[in-house]
Design goal:
heterotrimer, A mainly alpha (298), B mainly alpha (334), C alpha/beta (338), A: 298 residues, mainly alpha, MetI-like fold, 12 helices, C: 338 residues, alpha/beta, eight-stranded mixed sheet
């Protein structure tokens, strides 16, 4: 490519990546990412301040018991459920659960996955082979099945569920970090640092890890979205948290799937809550990916 | 090429073994012990002891595993606790249903997704491109079961255009030599039945296939964009080839490589999505079968079902790897 | 009448941030059987010119002025469907990097025959025979077996030969070679250049050889144009150019080429300064900021190509290099002269 073309290419894209500052700037200027941040912010605030915002406690009966619960109106923004509870309040408390689930399960997956990935990538050799075979095995079983299996084994508490979903994300992070480290290990700057005597551990912690971290952050964000959907799915299948009073979004939908004709609001509102939260997180993840490496066109 | 397939097959075997070990341990780890698991929770003490001896549960673990393995390899997956029928028989009935559904869903995803992604890439930053991006985003942010519920609500309940549950109208009688209802209808020459089965398939297939569609479209778009900037496309143009030829022979053939891989990966999504979709539409496939088994503690079915499910998944991955090698000569000749 | 006649060609790239003036009014003629070299550093616009002639500029690029007469037609005014008949058939092009310029998933036989099908309407048997003949002509052994091989099964030099075979398949009147040897080993470079020279002589083709490497041009091209910042700054028969350069940039180029037979004490003299910013097209000579010979006029008025010494020698400079300085420069080692 001639310099003219290179200049053209460079100008029509953004400045090359490298510094966090640059990445942050690009993120800030990305309208889709900002929409994502707004959405997530709304849900986070809803979650944190649920007790303050919600007009009623989530499990208090404020209307009549009914097989045909009322839709929006009459002082209830999203209507009532079959036990006379205010749906809006329940959804607000449900936001807490969803966000908690997203963060904790990804946290578990990250923690375990990163350890494996770093081991495999940096130590190499038979450790690498063993770890990667195990990861392959885990990936060879569809994640929902793994989650179902683990929940059946461990029981239906929130903690177990978050653990189960978290475990299904381990191979993704392990693979990612391993690949990143392997790529960095042979990078010119690493070879240069090694040639002037920078010791191994410092190399790993001070140089390789920080540079490998970026794609992991992007993946963590996107995995959070799928984690939320997966937990909702588990609830829908009847494997959600055993406590019937918990207003988990998927569970509300599951309980009312048969009432579509008479009480669609009980399915639509929680459903769209999930969708909007997930869209927000995905937009942030995409924005991060573009901010970190704008040359990717996906 | 053959060498590649053989190598790949050999590679799969340890994974299958690992899978069987996992499932074996899983059933053993379930609360209550495998005897109760296989007999049901109401079993009497005598029958439990009998089964334990029969199954050799007093034997060391590796011996048990060998027994289990031999059973599985000879086609014996035990009997369902709820229906008392051999698991294998139920599999034979349930598998075609899910297969038909998954196939329809995948056809839908690919037939719509690839053209969409391609056009979006060619008209980069045009209206269709932006619409497709939004669509893709929605596609991956929608839980499958919500989409299924929505579709059911709008088209089946409200509009009444399509049936809400099942594979076929219960009042209709049809011979089932293959278990694949569409094929059966063709064999029987029953046009009305064919249409009926199709109608039952449409909504679940769309629900199941929408997420893969979104992903396929996204990947196709990215792949085509990448390829369009490659030097060999410029060479093709410099040779004076027609744009259609350049697109088909040079752009698409290279862009399809990553797309095929992704399509293969989607099969996992399809299988798990099937579990959710079948529940919503009361579709009698593998997914709802395993799910009911879990609800009612039918551990023989759980064990056999998961083994089969995961085994199918591994097999499909193998197929995908092989077709990728077929398309990409560089892998073949290594 | 010349085979190809380019007049005042201008190409711009339009991006969101800025407009890049890649080519700013170049003119040249190419006769049948003539070998023309275009020399310049990366980014001077030489590759872009050839893409513009063929009508395959990247999306952001557009021709904003000039004429390209091929026979009695102006290529710049033709629709793409008409240009497609000319590309690959009357004008062939060889690109720089054979690794990325060949379709990795197509057999090379196919990549050659598709040109034959499209332009010469050959049937399958004839096309295959012709493809084998072409491969043999460019020096690929076991041609008939190699037809079914993929690009990655060839070495770099072999791949470039395949590219050349593709480009000359329809016996074009003009062959444009854009940095054909840059990505290759030095020993292979000489072979490829010899091949090109041989083909040109045999077929009577016109050849435009684009490169940044003075050594490449020396053995192959009768006439050489030196390009800087989208304009020709000097044009002359190659020997004359090398022995009597008159433009300070040409002098600078010649002085900065390392030579095996130079004494150890002779220093390499690089050209000071940085490549020009093509987003601004000001008045005055683009080279002036880096030029030791620059005058006030150089900075204010854009120089025009004018004859100097000889009708075949053109220079665009208000203060050309004196003959004494010019003759003091050593001539770079030629590649391509076997």
């Amino acid at each position: 490519m001639s310099i003219a073309e290179a200049q053209a290419a460079e100008l029509s894209l953004e400045r090359p990546s490298g510094l966090w500052r640059d990445a942050f700037d690009r993120f800030r200027r990305n309208p889709a990412a900002l929409v994502g941040v707004s959405l997530v912010l709304i849900f986070t605030i809803a979650a944190i301040f649920a007790p303050q915002i919600a007009p009623h406690p989530p499990n208090q009966q404020v209307g009549p018991l009914s097989t045909n619960p009322a839709g929006p109106g009459g002082g209830h923004v999203m209507g009532l459920d079959e036990q006379g509870r205010d749906l809006f309040s329940r959804l607000l408390y449900g936001a807490r659960l969803s966000l908690l689930v997203g963060i904790v399960s990804v946290g578990i997956g990250l923690a375990i996955g990163l350890v494996f990935g770093a081991l495999a990538g940096y130590v190499g050799g038979w450790v690498d082979t063993v770890v990667m075979r195990v990861m392959d095995l885990m990936l060879s079983i569809p994640s929902l099945l793994v989650a179902i299996g683990l929940v059946t084994l461990l029981g239906r508490g929130m903690v177990q569920i978050m653990f189960a979903v978290g475990v299904t994300t381990v191979p993704i992070f392990a693979r990612l970090l391993r690949g990143s480290i392997l790529g960095q290990r042979e990078a010119d700057y690493v070879l240069a640092a090694r040639s002037v005597g920078v010791p191994g551990r410092r190399l790993l912690l001070g140089h390789i890890l920080p540079n490998s971290i970026a794609p992991v952050i992007v993946q963590a964000t996107l995995t959070m979205a799928t984690a939320i959907i997966e937990v909702a799915g588990l609830s829908f299948l009847g494997l959600g948290p055993g406590d019937p009073s918990l207003p988990e979004w998927g569970k509300i939908m599951a309980d009312n799937a048969n009432r579509l004709e008479s009480a669609a609001h009980l399915v639509l509102f929680p459903g769209f809550a999930i969708v909007l939260t997930t869209i927000g997180i995905n937009l942030i993840g995409d924005g991060l990916r573009e901010a970190i490496d704008p040359k990717l066109k996906s | 090429m053959l060498k590649f397939i053989v190598r790949r097959l050999i590679f799969t075997i340890p994974i299958l073994f690992g899978l069987s070990i996992l499932v074996f341990l899983f059933v053993r780890a379930l609360p209550g012990g495998p005897a109760i698991a296989l007999l049901g929770e109401r079993a009497t003490q005598e029958s439990v002891e009998q089964i334990e001896e029969e199954l050799g549960l007093d034997q060391p673990l590796p011996v048990q595993y060998m027994r289990y393995l031999t059973n599985v390899l000879s086609g014996d997956l035990g009997s369902s606790v709820s229906t008392r029928r051999p698991v294998v028989d139920e599999l034979k009935q349930r598998f075609p249903a899910t297969f038909e559904l998954a196939l329809m869903a995948m056809l839908f995803a690919v037939a719509a997704g690839i053209p969409l992604g391609y056009i979006a890439a060619k008209r980069y930053q045009g209206i269709l491109d932006n619409v497709s991006l939004v669509g893709s985003l929605l596609g991956i942010s929608f839980p499958v079961f919500f989409l299924a519920l929505l579709l059911k609500y709008v088209f089946a309940v409200k509009l009444g255009w399509l049936p809400t549950v099942g594979r076929i109208d219960v009042t209709r009688s049809l011979e089932h030599p293959t278990g694949f209802y569409l094929l059966d209808a063709i064999i029987a020459g029953d046009g009305a039945a064919f249409v009926d089965v199709l109608q039952h398939l449409i909504l679940p297939a769309i629900a199941l296939g929408t997420i893969p569609l979104a992903i396929v479209a996204r990947i196709t778009r990215a792949a085509v964009l990448d390829v369009l900037g490659e030097d060999y496309v410029r060479t093709a143009r410099a040779k004076g080839l027609d744009p259609g030829v350049v697109d088909r022979r040079h752009v698409l053939r290279n862009a399809m490589l990553p797309v095929v891989t992704v399509i293969g990966l989607q099969t996992g999504l399809l299988l798990t999505g099937a579990v959710l979709t079948e529940t919503v539409f009361a579709y009698p496939g593998l997914g709802s079968w395993i799910l009911n088994a879990i609800r009612f503690r039918d551990y023989a079915v759980i064990q056999g079902g998961i083994l089969f499910f995961a085994g199918m998944f591994i097999f499909v991955n193998l197929l995908v790897d092989v077709s990728y090698a077929f398309l990409n000569p560089r892998i073949r000749y290594r | 009448m010349p085979l190809l006649s380019v007049r005042d060609l201008e190409v711009r790239f339009f991006t969101r941030r800025a407009t890049i003036h890649a080519v700013n009014g170049i003119s040249f003629d190419l006769d049948a059987g003539q070998t023309l070299g275009i020399v310049g550093e990366s980014g001077c616009g030489k590759s872009v010119s050839s893409l513009a002639i063929l009508g395959i500029l990247p999306k952001a690029g557009r021709v904003t002025g000039g004429r390209v007469m091929f026979g009695d037609r102006d290529l710049l005014t033709l629709k793409d469907s008409a240009l497609r008949e000319i590309r690959g058939r009357d004008i062939g092009m060889v690109f720089q990097d054979p690794m990325t310029s060949l379709n990795p998933v197509l057999k090379i036989g196919r990549q050659i025959t598709e040109v034959l099908f499209k332009h010469l309407r050959m049937d399958k048997h004839d096309a295959i025979r012709e493809a084998i003949a072409l491969l043999e002509r460019v020096g690929i052994p076991n041609a008939s077996d190699r037809l079914d091989d993929y690009p990655h099964q060839f070495s770099g030099g072999m791949r470039q030969r395949v590219m050349i075979a593709m480009a000359i398949a329809c016996r074009p009147q003009i062959l444009i070679a854009d940095e054909p040897t840059t990505a290759l080993d030095v020993t292979i470079q000489a072979q490829i250049l010899d091949l090109l020279k041989g083909l040109v002589e045999e077929e009577g083709m016109g050849l435009i050889l684009i490169t940044h490497d003075l050594g490449v041009v020396a053995g192959v091209c009768e006439r050489t144009h030196v390009m800087y910042a989208g304009r020709f700054v000097e044009a002359a028969p190659t020997d004359l150019l090398y022995h009597h350069p008159r433009h300070p940039y040409t002098l600078g180029l010649l002085r900065s080429v390392p030579r095996l037979d130079a004494s150890q004490k002779e220093k390499l003299i690089p050209i000071p300064g940085a490549p020009p910013d093509l987003t601004v097209l000001g008045a005055g000579c683009s080279f002036a900021p880096r030029c030791p010979y620059a005058t006030d006029r150089s900075r204010e008025v854009t120089p025009v190509l004018e004859e100097i010494d000889d009708p075949s020698h053109l220079v665009a400079c208000w203060n050309p290099v004196s003959d004494a300085d010019a003759s003091a420069v050593a001539v770079p080692v030629e590649r391509g002269r076997s």
